[in-house]
Amino acid sequence: MKKYLSSAIAFVIMLGTVQSQHTNIGIKGGLNGYTVKGNSNANYTPKLGLNLGVLAHIHLSKKFALQPEIVFSVQGTKYTSNGKNVDLQLKYVNIPILFQYMFENGFRLELGPQVGILTGAKNKVDDFKTNVNSSFKSVDLGLAVGMSYVRPATGFGFDIRYNHGLTNINTNNTFNTFNRGVQVGLFYLFQHKA
């Protein structure tokens, strides 16, 4: 897991230091609505959580950009087991690499792969929490698609994104479990240039 995280961080830093007049570094934060999908009989419902991270926005041309990010994300789901309500909390460091098409009015469409590195997993039943790290794989590969808007004069913007997990994150071969979630948030690009 440390190898994946180190490689991803090095990649993002390398992209962020590209000598280009159209490279911006930014910060972001927002709200998640996540659940898991799979072939079990459990009735999973969405769970709200926070996300917080950094990004590099790199213009490749007038219309296209590359945006790598490192985002801490609280995910999971809620479900009922044996008549009791269970709150599953999954914490990830997500590293999406987004390819963006930029419109002249500040709107952007984005699509790209995402690597999620599990940093913690807990089940909460009533007030009792259990560490369930061993039940989940340490790496989750996924696909992110969404849109964003930045106001060029200020560097402030917002985004909305759907993340579709492609990895069966369950270490138990009995069930397949995949992360699914929507993220909304605000971001700020330092020294933004249109």
What features would you describe in this structure?
With 194 residues, the chain is mainly β. It has one helix and nine strands. It has one helix at residues 2-16, and strands spanning 23-38, 47-59, 64-81, 84-102, 107-125, 128-131, 139-150, 156-165, 177-189. It has an eight-stranded antiparallel β-barrel with strand order 1-2-3-4-5-7-8-9. Strand 3 (64-81) and strand 4 (84-102) form a beta hairpin. The N and C termini lie far apart (37 Å). The mean pLDDT is 88.
Fraction of helical residues? under 10%
Count up the helices: 1
Widest sheet: strand ordering: 1-2-3-4-5-7-8-9
Distance between the termini: 37 Å
Described by the principal axes of the CA atoms, the overall outline is elongated
What does this entry show, briefly?
By secondary structure, the chain is mostly beta strands. The chain has one helix spanning 2-16, and strands at residues 23-38, 47-59, 64-81, 84-102, 107-125, 128-131, 139-150, 156-165, 177-189.
Q: Which structural traits does this protein have?
A:
1 helix, single chain, mainly beta, 194 residues, 9 strands
Compile the SSE list and pairings:
Blueprint lengths: L1 H15 L6 E16 L8 E13 L4 E18 L2 E19 L4 E19 L2 E4 L7 E12 L5 E10 L11 E13 L5
Antiparallel strand pairs: 1-2, 1-9, 2-3, 3-4, 4-5, 5-6, 5-7, 7-8, 8-9
